[in-house]
Amino acid sequence: MNICLLGRQPKLCVAELEMRYGADAIHHVGDDFALVDANVDIDTLGGTVKVARPLTELDTTNPQKVFDYCRRELPNHAAKRPEGKIKLGVSLHGFDMPVAKINANVLSLKKAIKKTGRSVRAVPNTAAALSSAQTLHNNLTGDMGIELVFVHAGNKTLLGQVSGVQNIDAFAARDQARPKTDAFVGMLPPKLALMMINLSGITFAFSPTEFSETASRLTSVERSSASDRAADVPENSLASGSTATTPARVTSGGERKRILDPFCGTGVVLQEAALIGFDVYGTDLSEKMVDYSTANMKWLADKFGVDVDVNIHHGDAIETKWQLPIDAAVAETYLGQPFSAPPAPDKLAQVQRICNEIISKFLENIGTQVEKGTPFCLAVPAWRDKSGRFTHLPLVETLGKLGYHQVQLRHAKIDDLLYYREDQVVARQLLILRKD
Ligand SMILES: C[S@@+](CC[C@H](N)C(=O)[O-])C[C@H]1O[C@@H](n2cnc3c(N)ncnc32)[C@H](O)[C@@H]1O
Hints:
The chain is α/β, with parallel strands linked by helices and 436 residues long. It has two domains: 2-167 and 222-230, VC0802-like, CATH 3.30.2130; 250-435, 3-Layer(aba) Sandwich (Rossmann fold), CATH 3.40.50.150. It contains twelve helices and 19 strands. The protein has helices spanning 10-21, 63-79, 99-114, 132-137, 168-177, 190-200, 211-218, 226-230, 268-275, 287-304, 345-367, 399-402; strands at 2-6, 26-29, 33-36, 48-58, 86-93, 120-122, 145-153, 156-165, 251-252, 255-256, 258-261, 279-284, 310-314, 328-332, 375-384, 390-391, 404-406, 418-419, 426-435. Strands 11, 12, 13, 14, 15, 16, 17, 18 and 19 form a nine-stranded mixed sheet that branches. Strands 2-3-1-4-8-7-5-6 form an eight-stranded mixed sheet. A two-stranded antiparallel ribbon has the order 9-10. The protein is elongated and about 70 Å long. The protein starts with a strand and ends with a strand. Mean pLDDT is 89; it is low at 206-250.
């Protein structure tokens, strides 16, 4: 069992976990965490920000009592660390304890370890939970790190230890360093692109020998190895042995699967898919975007040694005949013009009509070319008004007529699949589709 700590839009993150590991693997969903019985590979997830191994379950929901328990048990746990300075952090999820009190408790844990002759540095909290940046930059998942997590699950507390953290530096580095970007076409965050690939439901196959290859492509900051992490499990651990980071590779039956992005723009989806080992195929109406995606993929190959098949060419999504195979289509489609404030009703109706027409025609076109059951994850526009209500594309209600159905999720609702920041008018509605 793993404790997955979820990012900014937790319901989307749960949906990603469900599509990736199956609904049965998800045992409990809290406000910002999920308990997942699978080999969770944080390097290939967009929405999960940390993964922790459960150490024990306590019959209390009083965080002070959990700290008291840790004060008794932690020195033994710390004694098993190699020589050197231990770095200690604590993250609370679902508890209401003032930050000052958390910090006082963390200091008392530090003192308890110090009494045993070990030197310790505590990472101060500025919120109930440490940020991914704090976990990553203090290397709390490394040999000398211990980040405890308290998770409020029903009438118990699950005590865990963080074993993996999302490499936000690597995401930011490839977002900012790629040679071609275009603010007008849009800025699909790489994390969201990765979530969309997982949300499509395209299946991953695993091969242990290829793990280090994948991980080294994805990480720019040193991490502890999976075996180092396994050694962190204390004797009183509840960990089942199924928690080591999963090796990931996207081969199936010996063949790599290929993801199409028919609105590829600058190629963020292509980049993220290639990094986790998919062959990629991108098309776009704009020659400039074809050049941009091509340049960005070349940069990716040079920088990260990615050696997947890449095919990028010009194409209007409403009439292109794509080369097969297409194992999944993942795309941020045409979102219409950007708005910094909600548009007037007639303007909104006009943009909505244009987007609806392009995306409907694209679905009709590709529907004649791909096999029944082909997975899709498409980001389509939905516009937020000042009261937070959304105007959706009419096609969302007529997918059956277009020859598709939406995948129903057990742990999230279809309406939860909206990605936006509070200041954004144009939200991305994520449609998880199957060709009928
Ligand atoms: C929101 S952007 C996608 C940005 C992309 N996710 C990226 O990583 O840069 C939509 C893209 O769709 C393209 N587009 C618009 N209409 C199209 C059509 N009919 N066929 C193919 N591409 C189209 C635009 O040129 C633009 O690059």
